Amino acid sequence: MAGAPDLFRSIPSGKAELLPVTGADGARLALYRVTGGAGDRGGPPLLCGHATGMAAGSYLPWFRMLSERVRVYAFDARGHGGSEGDGASVTLDALARDLLAVAGAACRDAKTDSLFYAAHSISGVAALHLGATLGAVPWRDLILFEPPVMVGAAHPRHAHALADTLARAERTERRRPSWPSRAAYRDRLRSGGVFARFRPDMLDAHVQATLRPDGAGGFRLACDPTVEGAFFRSVRSSEVWDSLPAFPLPARFVGGDPAQPDPGSEQARWVTAAAPDIAARVPGARFGMLGGCGHMMICERPDACRDLVFAMVGEARP
Q1: Are 77 and 83 in contact (CB under 8 A)?
Q2: Domains along the chain with CATH numbers
Q3: 31 has which bridge partners?
Q4: Which of 34, 102, 214, 279 could be stapled to 287 by a disulfide with Cβ–Cβ 3.0 to 4.6 Å?
Q5: pLDDT score recorded for residue 193
Q6: Alpha carbon distance 29, 84 (integer Å)
Q7: CB 24 within 8 A of CB 93
Q8: CB 139 within 8 A of CB 171
Q9: What is the rounded CA–CA span in Å between residue 101 and residue 104?
Q10: 139-145 and 252-255 as β-strands: parallel, antiparallel, unpaired?
Q11: What is the mean pLDDT of each run of 10 residues along the chain (318 residues)?
């Protein structure tokens, strides 16, 4: 199976301990225990999942904030960062079973039988599929930052959501995979689109985490564009939407601001507009909107997202 080199880490040594995990179909996955914060000395364990095309290390400044109170674990999804996987292996079932494997490994490391979970985008879809379809819920509580659950056929945004997701997959698959330097890649990301709204330290972390040396003096995306495209294609089915009423926990959902336009479009990203409807299908779920930001909210307003995670942990019963 094609994948990133064994020695590549999206979070460098000295900032996290690497805990190798075997995921669905034998894929080698990179799980990290973030070190250096007060929370890693006995704080409640929190597992964090990243968005498509990113990596655990893309969120490192946020993890440092979180680690003042909690013990942070994070993982690279298959085909991302230091985890193995190719586009042909990407299915919702595989992503959910990968999540179950890394959650189990984090539980064993933390010597507990359940974790808190904070997921951005596709990692939230994996958690919903894991609980509603596969019946596994290794969480004390979970907060999902705008999971792009494909809305059902009767939803007024269904046709737009299908077309938009396919278009994003096709654009992604044409993405330039190789870069002469990290500076060149950073400059390209800063020039427009959602990355231009990243807080500078979050953008720097993302660049560091998602480019790996190519052995010839340059760099290559740690998530190949074909893998990223496959992730977008994996959410075009509405099977998760259909199963959401069976999700067994009252999850917390956070949506972006519908008034914040998607760069390059005159309308809000469909998942932002549909986020309240997605949350409403989970019995007992809570939904909150984070103003002034879009789908990449953790990278735009990490302090506010940190506070939401701390509120979840603080409200948990001992």
Answers
A1: yes
A2: 16-315 (3.40.50.1820)
A3: 19, 75
A4: 279
A5: 87
A6: 6
A7: yes
A8: no
A9: 5
A10: parallel
A11: 61 96 95 92 94 98 97 98 95 96 97 96 98 93 98 96 95 96 97 93 98 96 97 95 97 93 65 96 98 95 98 87
Q: Are 55 and 223 in contact (CB under 8 A)?
A: yes
Q: How far is CA 34 from CA 62, 194, 212, in A?
A: 11, 26, 20
Contacts of residue 122, defined as CB under 8 A and 6 or more positions apart, other chains included, come to: 49, 51, 52, 77, 95, 147, 148, 231, 234, 235
The HSE-up count of residue 270 (CA atoms within 13 Å, CB side) is: 20
Q: In this structure, which amino acid lies at residue 135?
A: G
Give the number of residues written for the chain. Answer: 318
DSSP string, 212-253: EE-SSSSEEESS-HHHHHHHHHHTTS-HHHHHGGG--S--EE
250: Cβ contacts below 8 Å, ≥ 6 apart? 282, 283, 284, 285, 286
d(CA 165, CA 150): 9
The whole-number pLDDT of residue 5 equals 42
- Give, in order, the Cα–Cα distances in Å from 226 to each of 65, 123, 168, 214: 33, 18, 12, 17
CA neighbor of 206 nearest in space, from 48, 51, 58, 52: 58
| pLDDT at site 262 | 65
- 160: part of which helix (H) or strand (E)? helix 158-173
User: What does pTM read for this prediction?
Assistant: 0.95
